[in-house]
Amino acid sequence: MTQMTFDGKVGDVTIMEEVYTFKKIHWHAPSEHTINGMRFPLELHMVHVSDDGGLAVISILYKLGAPDPFYFQLNDTLAYLNDPFLMIDLFEREARVPVGPVQLRSLEKRTGNYFRYIGSLTTPPCTENVVWNVLGKVREISKEQLDLVTAPLPTKDARPAQPLNHRDVYFYNPPNSTISFLDHL
Q1: Domains in the chain and their CATH numbers?
Q2: Assessment of whether the complete model's pTM goes beyond 0.90
């Protein structure tokens, strides 16, 4: 799995009065979540862990469009990872490639509304009781950026959409929010 991990403390998020520490980012192509049955070309997962081992994931869905500023800072590393001879060697050794400083602020753009439910991880060991937070604002990514991000990913990297199995999915729309996920599909 292609992922970014961070040295030191990057940040925290408080969800339902529980503090979760940001640990890593990884991607799935196509998206694992759908909105109104629509799947997107890319989904980013920001994985957070609480002191007692609880997990919370913030998910960002992407559609094709304008370039996303976050990925500009990864261009050189992603291009390096896309070298076919290097990829074979990296995957066989599960190697780490330093990215250098990364500004995460562009991922913190005004997000407005979001969906929340309690589910499981989408990759083994498929741990239960994960607090999922799927941002309602579908962001844009250019075709070139999408190609760079997805090239190192395993083919068909996304788990098929799963039935809700009686899970409640809540939609949060903060006061004074004018953003609607329907405007971004």
Answers
A1: 3-184 (3.10.200.10)
A2: no
